[in-house]
Specification:
- This protein has helices spanning 2-11, 30-36, 63-71, 87-98, 107-114, 118-121, 123-131, 146-150, 152-157, and strands at residues 15-18, 21-23, 49-52, 55-59, 79-84, 105-106, 135-137, 141-144.
- The chain has 160 residues and is of the alpha+beta class.
- The chain folds into three domains: 2-27, no CATH class; 49-84, no CATH class; 87-157, Arc Repressor Mutant, subunit A (Orthogonal Bundle).
- The strands form three sheets. Strands 3-4-5 form a three-stranded antiparallel sheet, with no helix packed on it. Strands 6-8-7 form a three-stranded antiparallel sheet. A two-stranded antiparallel sheet has the order 1-2.
- β3 and β4 (55-59) form a beta hairpin.
- The longest helix is centred in the middle third of the chain and has 12 residues, at 87-98.
Length: 160
């Protein structure tokens, strides 16, 4: 069914730009791509989530407490830290999130952001995945094959 729908949508002018999404040109989800590109975002308001400098946090979900903290100028009481990533965590996440995009992991962006070559850094994982036919590597990108699209969770597991 997935491949039938994929073919139908592409023949209808939709671009398959991430594993589970298609769009007309220029209408891709900016929010999703922001997440898959590991960009920062900030959420405002009750239960809103943010990601800044490797720190994931959310605001509390209790409205009365949230308002009380604002009225008392105790803004930090509204923040719940969910995760503080190390550089290694961020590198692995960059890989995993990059595989959500059909274009895959941009090697030059990884190098620019982390000053490391992902092909060298993850040579064992990438070699295994390539031998299993789940990924392909070219000069610019590391991306899922058609088989990899079907079995993407196996690829993600290598970077968790």
């Amino acid at each position: 069914m997935y491949w039938y729908v994929k073919d139908f949508l592409e023949l209808s002018g939709y671009n398959h730009y991430e594993i589970s999404n298609f769009s007309k040109a220029g209408k891709e989800s900016k929010h999703n791509l922001n997440c898959w590109n590991q960009e920062e975002y900030i959420g405002f308001g009750l239960a809103a989530h943010s990601y800044i400098d490797g720190l994931r946090f959310c605001n509390i979900s209790n409205l009365e407490e949230y308002i009380k903290n604002i009225n008392n100028l105790e803004f930090n009481k509204n923040k719940i830290i969910e995760e503080k990533q190390t550089k290694e965590d961020m590198e692995k996440e960059f890989m995993m999130l990059g595989f959500r995009k059909i274009e895959g992991v941009d090697i030059s962006k990884f190098k620019e952001k982390y000053l490391e070559n992902p092909i060298f850094l993850y040579r064992k994982e990438l070699d295994k995945l390539a031998k299993e036919g789940l990924i392909e590597v070219d000069l610019n990108n590391i991306k899922l094959t058609n088989k990899g699209l079907d079995l993407a969770n196996l690829v993600f597991e290598e970077f968790v």
